[in-house]
Write a structure and sequence with these properties.
Blueprint: E1 21-29, E2 33-36, E3 42-45, E4 48-56, H1 61-70, H2 79-84, E5 87-96, H3 102-110, E6 115-117, E7 133-136, H4 143-148, E8 157-160
Antiparallel strand pairs: 1-4, 1-5, 2-3, 4-7, 5-8, 6-7
This protein binds zinc ion.
């Protein structure tokens, strides 16, 4: 729909590695919404595409974490779970390694002209980043590929789910 497909798209989530790592989750919000985000309270979200930076270092690594994000959340633990109730997960960029990269990635996305910082403090309760959530102003053509260039050469996989 929004041209998110990359040539190396791999639609099978079972192919995602169980290694620990860092990821950028791509979410599509179908319509503008007011959404309660835990302690951050009710916030306005414009319809469109969002990028969320996180890391997975628990059991099952990236595979388990991405599977969590793709399920409808039953309990709301992280800020992203609240947004996830209203938005579809349409892709992810992944990098393996136990090094904690998420804040470095959030800083890099912060300087990207194609992106706008979304809700202040989102996903950043345990760090001093402004936010770990970004709104994609213009989501046309090869979004994952373009975003992935920021993290070259550490990106090892990109996955898209259409529909
Ligand atoms: Zn951070």
């Amino acid at each position: 729909m929004l041209g998110l497909m990359a040539p190396d798209s791999q639609p099978n989530p079972d192919r995602i590695t169980t290694s620990p790592g860092t990821y950028v989750l791509v979410l599509t919000l179908g319509r503008s919404s007011r959404i309660k985000v835990g302690a951050l309270g009710r916030r306005s979200f414009a319809a469109g595409v969002y990028l969320y930076v996180g890391s997975a270092r628990g059991p099952g690594g990236l595979r388990a974490r991405i599977a969590h994000h793709r399920r409808d959340p039953r309990s709301l633990h992280w800020h992203i779970d609240y947004l996830r109730r209203h938005a579809r997960v349409t892709g992810v960029l992944l990098a393996t390694g136990s090094k904690k990269r998420e804040c470095d990635w959030a800083r890099r996305l912060h300087g990207n002209d194609d992106l706008a910082s979304a809700v202040a403090g989102f996903g950043a309760s345990d760090c001093d980043c402004g936010t770990h959530l970004f709104f994609v102003a213009e989501a046309g053509g090869r979004l994952l590929e373009r975003i992935g260039r920021h993290f070259h050469p550490v990106i090892v996989q990109s996955v898209c789910w259409s529909g």
